[in-house]
Amino acid sequence: MSDLTASSASDSIPQDLSEVRDWVTLLKPRVISLVVLTGIVGLMVAPGHLAPALAVAAVLCIALGAGAAGAINMWYDRDIDARMKRTATRPIPAGRIEPGAALAYGVALAAASVLIMGLATNWVAAAVLALSIGFYVFVYTMWLKRRTSQNIVIGGAAGAFPPVIGWAAVTGHITLEPIILFAIIFFWTPPHFWALSLFAHADYERVGVPMLPVTHGAKETRKQVLIYTLVLLPLTLLPTLLGFAGWVYAAAAVLLGAEFLRHAVLVFRDRQDVAGRSLTGDAPARKAFRYSLSYLGLLFIALAVDRMILG
What we know:
By secondary structure, this protein is mainly alpha-helical. It has helices spanning about 1-25, 30-45, 50-75, 80, 100-120, 125-145, 150-155, 160-170, 175-200, 200-205, 210-235, 240, 245-270, 285-310. GO terms for molecular function: protoheme IX farnesyltransferase activity.
């Protein structure tokens, strides 16, 4: 009997871990990593001081809030996720988590993150956190995503809130500096996501999501990737020009931005057929998408390093 019991217990461990992974997957951990990073930098560069325990609580709330929005997004999009190759194995369409349980999970985490943020720091930060969750769920997921090719442009605002939340957690108010950080992420989002949509357009077309390559074609999307990149790069220099970052950040912004622009130009000049479809398997778009993830993280790390070195 003891051997059977031990065998049963050992067999349940991988299953338990798999269930835990599914619940974590609902939170979109890859997205959370950038959200947490930009939120931490918002905390670091804000004037003032937050006790370490409260700073940890604020970061945790930002992560939980972003994860909650991701879980609700997966609940709402379960119908189209099931028909897209990129998302068909997610826990809800794959049948590993019940939709109702996922929704309850997301709502509970959202409420908890806002309440704890308000109690641990201040209610301005909590209000901005609630706004970011609501914007992602109601404005982007439920309203824009299936209705307009500008879905990711307007809806991208949801992912730009974390540095504002971090700043507000420390100061209790919002000034020009966090708004500039918001703008940087806001204008980074379209070239980042449209690079993805160039090589995932078949999925979006299959489920009727009007991403720009589906509604306006790949050629127009490549042009927009370049245009938004050209708008983004001068914005990244504003922290130095306005005096709340120094030469360390400025040098990083120029170097990182030059590489981002190189990728955007390669996307724009990708070899195409007469219909504007890539003849290279969208290789430049894939590389641009991967680089864009590193770009934003490194840019915000440079801002934090600049503050630590120069004060």
